[in-house]
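Here comes a specimen:
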Amino acid sequence: MPDDALTAADLADLRALDTPTICNALEIILPARRGIGFTTKPLVCARPDLPPIVGYARTATIRATHPAEGDAKASRQLRLDYYRHVSEGPGPRIVVLEDLDAEPGYGAFWGEVNSNIHKGLGCEGVITNGSIRDIPACAEGFQLLAGRVGPSHAHVHIVEIALTVTVHGMTVRPGDLIHGDQHGAVVIPPEAARHIPATAAQIARRESHIIGASQQPDFSYEKLARTLAEADEIH
């Protein structure tokens, strides 16, 4: 394992935080990334009760409005190459799948079969601007964050694999560390990952001080001003 590789404990620490908290911490650790690196449009979260997913991105693009170009043998081989890509690299993994159609989600790549295949290959979930279906029958514990829900897979097929993709404003390269939950998803730069838990704890202390004061019966504008100043001094 490389010296800078995250351990299982490091990943567990990140999984214990929700995605907005990850974004809050990144704003402090890497201020230049305050306006980039996260989804900026709503995603349908199939399973909001699941804990956040954390993993390394495996990427691909799809289309569904028309059949794949080329013969069936070539399409089958591309699908196998895609599954190989998904299965390789450090784990856990998250698939980030960009739907290239003018109407993303016209056909669903994700359902009962693919969720089970991907879970078996070591994936925690998928983030896509495409559609999902068969939600009650999808693999247990597998999270699906998608652009929409739809009934059919239409002509869905893989176009390219292992490339930079963009899903709802979030640009992702293969191997990027991703954090996602019902709120959306964010890319965690490697140099920030280990600093996030401590920074998040500091933010929580400050927020707790403000919230606690606001819930007191004597709360007022004057007390708010004092409380905000006090919160700034909490480290």
Observations:
- Residues 196-232 form one domain.
- The radius of gyration is 20 Å.
- The CA atoms of residues 80 and 86 lie 10 Å apart.
- The chain has a mean pLDDT of 95.
